[in-house]
Amino acid sequence: MKTRGTVTALVPAHQAAGFIQATLDSLSAQTRSDFGVIISVDLCDDDTHSICMAHAARDSRFRVIRQDKRLGYVGNCNFLLGAADSEYVLFAFHDDILLPAYLEKS
Question: How sure is the predictor about 3, in pLDDT bands with cuts at 50, 70 and 90?
């Protein structure tokens, strides 16, 4: 599935229910509009997946993939790199808050 725009933010997530919403909000607040976001929720037992799905329902630039087996950090990052179909990618880690013009300056 082609991601929207020439830039894709890749979000590897695991056990992030307590703090991922702020990261998702910071991505939605970007001043650049032509980008997509792929979130890969590694197998976990908290509400990370449902939080990401609810956010994606409100922002069509977001796509959420739920892993059915544990990939681990490196495996999840590699999965995201393989899922991206855009000219540029960046990692937006599940506990990082990006300033609104971060992608604009990319």
Answer: low
Q: What angle do CA 22, 104, 91 make, to 5 degrees?
A: 50
Q: What is the pLDDT of residues 50-93, one digit of tens each?
A: 999 999 999 999 999 999 999 999 999 999 999 999 989 999 99
55 CB neighbour count, 10 Å cutoff: 20
Structural domains in the chain plus CATH codes: 7-91 (3.90.550.10)
Task: Give DSSP secondary structure letters for 30-94.
Answer: -S--SEEEEEEE-S-SSSHHHHHHHHHHH-TTEEEEE-SS--HHHHHHHHHHHH--SSEEEE--T
